[in-house]
Structures are given as structure tokens and as C-alpha cells.
């Protein structure tokens, strides 16, 4: 009976929400040149609520280019609703000498930009060079470098977020 009441309650409500960002997985054995946009952003299609960022998982021998890799949360239609949270991005390089110096683009998972309710919670970016183990990679939590006093939502970093239990660096901005 409780399930019937719950189902009836859910059917009685109307929610105008945008879709989340979905999943992008890219595996390249050699050089991955990213000059365009790899986008797992939530939808911001004019719905009442913006969609949360999805996930981008890149594994490549090395990374070059000047593009953008992102999983951003989106803004709500109205400023009295809080924006959606950012998603997750992981870029893992496998070539012995590979690093991020040859990639001049952007990698981010920002929360939606503020209305009256501040920024949506930041997502996470994980970056691992070829000479690092997974546990030596960098975990970055960055919300445009925004003033944290206007970010109304947190970023969850529990055991369901990553397989790693430790990181070489944890960088928090905004």
C-alpha cells in the first residue's frame, strides 16, 4: 500500500527538469588531440531546473590540443531556484612521459552559475600523468574559483565517487 501511495504522489506532481549530462568515455592508445569540445554538461533547455553535469572519462597515451573537456551543471530558468551541480571528469594518461603541458585547453566540472541561491556544487576533475599511479593523480574541486560564501551546495567526495582512496594532490578552489 505504501508503494501505491508513493506512486500516486509522484504521478500527481509535475516536475519540469532538464536532463543530466550523461556519460562520455574515450580510450585512445596513442596521442589524443582534443581541439574541440567534449561535453557532458547537463541540459539547460529552458526547463524550470537545470540538469546536473554528467561524466567524462578519458584514457589516452598522451593529450594535446586546445579544446575543452567538461561536465558542467546548468542554470535554472528562474533565479529563485538553485543551479545544478557539476559532474565528474577523469583524464588518465598512460604514456611513460606524458603530462598535461601539451594541452592548453580547459578541463572542468563547474556547478551551475548563481541565481539568488548561489552556485551549484562543484563537480570533480581527476588528472593523472603517465608517470603516476592512480593514487598519485590530482583531484581538483573548482567552481570557477568562486567565492565559497555564494556556493550553497557541497561536493561529495565519498567512496562511491572514486576507486582511489588517496590522491597525490587535492586542489580546492571556490
Give a description of the structure:
It is globular and about 50 Å long. The chain has one helix spanning 2-12; strands at residues 23-33, 37-39, 55-64, 68-70, 88-93, 106-108, 124-128, 138-142, 169-173. The strands form two sheets. A six-stranded mixed beta sheet has the order 1-3-5-7-8-9, with no helix packed on it. Helix content is 6%, strand content 29%. The protein is mainly beta and 174 residues long. The longest helix is centred in the N-terminal third of the chain and has 11 residues, at 2-12. It contains one helix and nine strands, in the order H-E-E-E-E-E-E-E-E-E.
Q: Which structural class do the helices and strands define? A: mainly beta
Query: Main β-sheet: number of strands, strand sense, barrel status?
Result: 6 strands, mixed
Distance between the termini: 46 Å
> Per DSSP, what share of the residues sits in E-state strands of 2 or more residues?
25-35%
What string gives the helices and strands in order? Answer: HEEEEEEEEE
Helix count equals 1
Overall geometry: globular
Assembly classification: single chain
Radius of gyration: 18 Å
Helices and strands in order, then pairings?
Layout: H1 2-12, E1 23-33, E2 37-39, E3 55-64, E4 68-70, E5 88-93, E6 106-108, E7 124-128, E8 138-142, E9 169-173
Parallel strand pairs: 1-3, 2-4, 3-5, 4-6, 5-7, 8-9
Antiparallel strand pairs: 7-8
Amino acid at each position: 500500500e505504501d508503494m501505491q501511495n508513493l506512486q500516486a504522489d509522484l504521478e500527481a506532481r509535475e516536475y519540469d527538469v532538464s536532463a543530466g549530462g550523461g556519460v562520455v568515455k574515450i580510450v585512445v592508445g596513442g596521442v589524443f588531440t582534443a581541439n574541440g569540445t567534449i561535453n557532458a554538461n547537463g541540459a539547460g533547455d529552458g526547463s524550470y531546473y537545470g540538469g546536473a553535469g554528467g561524466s567524462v572519462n578519458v584514457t589516452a597515451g598522451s593529450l594535446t590540443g586546445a579544446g575543452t573537456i567538461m561536465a558542467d551543471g546548468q542554470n535554472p530558468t528562474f533565479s529563485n531556484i538553485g543551479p545544478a551541480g557539476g559532474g565528474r571528469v577523469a583524464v588518465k594518461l598512460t604514456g611513460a612521459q606524458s603530462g598535461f603541458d601539451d594541452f592548453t585547453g580547459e578541463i572542468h566540472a563547474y556547478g551551475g552559475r548563481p541565481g539568488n541561491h548561489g552556485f551549484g556544487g562543484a563537480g570533480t576533475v581527476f588528472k593523472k600523468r603517465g608517470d603516476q599511479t592512480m593514487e598519485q593523480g590530482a583531484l581538483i574541486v573548482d567552481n570557477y574559483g568562486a567565492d565559497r560564501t555564494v556556493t550553497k551546495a557541497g561536493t561529495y567526495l565519498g567512496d562511491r565517487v572514486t576507486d582511489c582512496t588517496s590522491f597525490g594532490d587535492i586542489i580546492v578552489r571556490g
